[in-house]
Amino acid sequence: MRKLLFLALLAVFVSCEKGDSNSKDYKDASLSIDERVEALLPKLSIEEKVAQMRIFHANIGTKPDANGNLKLSKKVIEKLKLGIAGIKNPGEHIDAVAAAKMNNELQKYIIENNRWGIPALFVTESYNGVDAEGCTRFGRPMTSAASFNPELVQRQWDVVGREARLRGMHMCHSPEADLVRDPRFGRMSEAFGEDTYLTTQMVKNAVIGVQGNYEGLGNGTHIGAVTKHFAAYGQVLGGSNFAAIEISPRTLIDEIYPPFEAAVKEAKTLGIMASHGDINGVASHGNPELLTGVLRDQWGFEGYVVSDSNDIARLFYFMNVAESPEAAAQMGLEAGIDIDLYAEDSYAYLPEMVKKNPELEKLIDRSVRRVLRTKFILGLFDNPYINIEDVEKGNRAESSLELAKESDLESIILLKNEANTLPLDAKKPTKIALLGPLVTENTKAMFESVADDNIKFVAEKGFHLTDEKGGEPKLLPRDGKALDKLVSIARSSDVIVLFMGGDEFTSKEAFFTHALGDRATIDPVGPQDELIERVKALGKPVIVVLKHRRTLSINAIAEHADAILDTWDLSEFGDESTARIIFGEVSPSGKSPVTIPRSIGQIPFHYSMKEINYKKEYLFLGKGPLYPFGHGLSYGDFEYSDISISNGEITPDTELEVSVKVTNKGSMKAKEVIQMYIKDEIGSVTRPDKELKGFQKIEFNAGESKTVSFKITPKMLEFTGITMEKVLEAGDYTVMVGTSSKDYLETTFKLKK
């Protein structure tokens, strides 16, 4: 008996020495996050673990009833018995206060109806601010990229994080770190442009902003970012969603990975979403080298990886790289996908699969740890609910609305300004016609709010671009009477502002079934070219406000317009902001985050292509792009002079500084984006024509000069060499500092080793 007692005491002692996780309470907030995870995980059944690896969409039965109270479908009630990793978009179609109340009720139900009281992640997205009713509507990511102002982007996404958390949300399937270089791709405006460095700066600051510099996560003020789509999603062949991705490993490492790496290492993104596509034949959702090797082993990512919509199951029935749905589930699990988004035919099979292959539970535990860890980081076990009074005070705050306007003003790009057509005199009696298919119901009112009473406006949309059917919109036949009416209005006006380009129906996501969004051409649709040709023939000043979500080959617009303001897709105050630019309240300072081609036949056509790509032009086509990357005019008149470099040589252990004098010779205060590009003159592999390595946005008073300096570091000169290792090669380099990728001063230096 004494021997048995001794053994029992010994067992207790050993258990304590090992810090037995089961003796700790996962609800104890004094424990570390890892301790709390390890205390909770062993308690879960295999079914409960798998429930923490699944997200369903709220549209299957999570909504408010007529009185605003939570209403759940039988299907949802059944799912929530075991708990759930998360729910996508609960309350997206109701205002912020109503959403917060409903989501509090939903979270309470979830906590009280699973054995361990595990809260759920409520997930949103952000393309124009929080993707939900009643939030501040910002411009799209491509629009804000045109600001070339990462600090502004960080402030914008800070508002996104705050407004989302006030609704009861916790994660955001944004931002996109994809490079977009093919304007046929319908999702182009969801990303930050064609350039690696610009996208890296914008994504990093978006993640920092939405997560409240990480501190906002546990404080309950911000949400976690899920940076997507890892990797190379924007490089689909033909610009066609779900198509194959063929990309060189060198390009992948040097150009595609850096924005994701910065999101992980510098911004500490909580999540990563895998790409719909493959990479050179290997499906991303079944790619352990990508999702574990690069992401975790090389970069040290500790968050969770979520599938894109239904994509684990598609390894079987679409990608044809798995023999069965179960094999697809195992492939995704082994690759490193922690959460299955939406599917009923993938991770739902895992409990039964574990019975046949118990070793799978180790991989399941790995994923569940990551999900639980995220919920603890967000403080959901300790503070799962939203204070409704905070929502009423914080959502759509005046400061947020002003920020949307500020972002617009810094993002509008002046592509052309023949004979200083802009700005217009806000005090001169003028009749201005606001015409074209992108005129909205409040365009006229917004222009009137900016101009003096002696300026009279007439507004007419004229025609629509499509039938505006969501899934597969159709082009409309030419409406001659509508065109005649627009021309007649223009004839009786002093100045014509044409609102042209594209909309949410001419550029959108091509969903897996019953939806098209990519295009085989990038010419403006409908009779827009005819409209500008006829209006220009009247001999009146013609200003084009270009609204769009994909780059367009605007040849007729570029030829006939006296001035072009490229606005992409601005905030809810977009037309007001545009009017303020037109009447000269503020000088435009946006720069194009993409190359604007003359023809779809020039694609691929980004500024940083290999130098050898520029050897020959095309027959019967003008030289180069319509407008280069980084282009954007100003009401100021900026002169660059006196470029200098601190030393003619750099070594692997030293840095250089390049400086240039910039003078605003104009009569108006204006901001300028000074851009630095570097060209490797001779490399062991063919090298880009030039690469953006720095930029600064600086305001200049009229007549003011400033010396602007950039550091050049050895890191900027690294690239992936012949052996697929990062190299730093001795030789000649050219550094260019200027106002665009085509207009600059240059000097040279040597790298010596």
From TrEMBL:
Q: Which family does it belong to?
A: Belongs to the glycosyl hydrolase 3 family.
Q: Which domain of life is it from?
A: Bacteria
Asked if the Swiss-Prot or TrEMBL record annotates the protein with the keyword Signal, the reply is: yes
- The coiled-coil segments of this chain are none
Which UniProt keywords are listed? Hydrolase, Signal
Pfam families on file: Fn3-like (PF14310), Glyco_hydro_3 (PF00933), Glyco_hydro_3_C (PF01915)
Give every Fibronectin type III-like domain span. Answer: 672-741
* UniProt protein name: Beta-glucosidase
Q: Which organism is it from?
A: Tamlana crocina
List, alphabetically, the PROSITE patterns matched.
PROKAR_LIPOPROTEIN
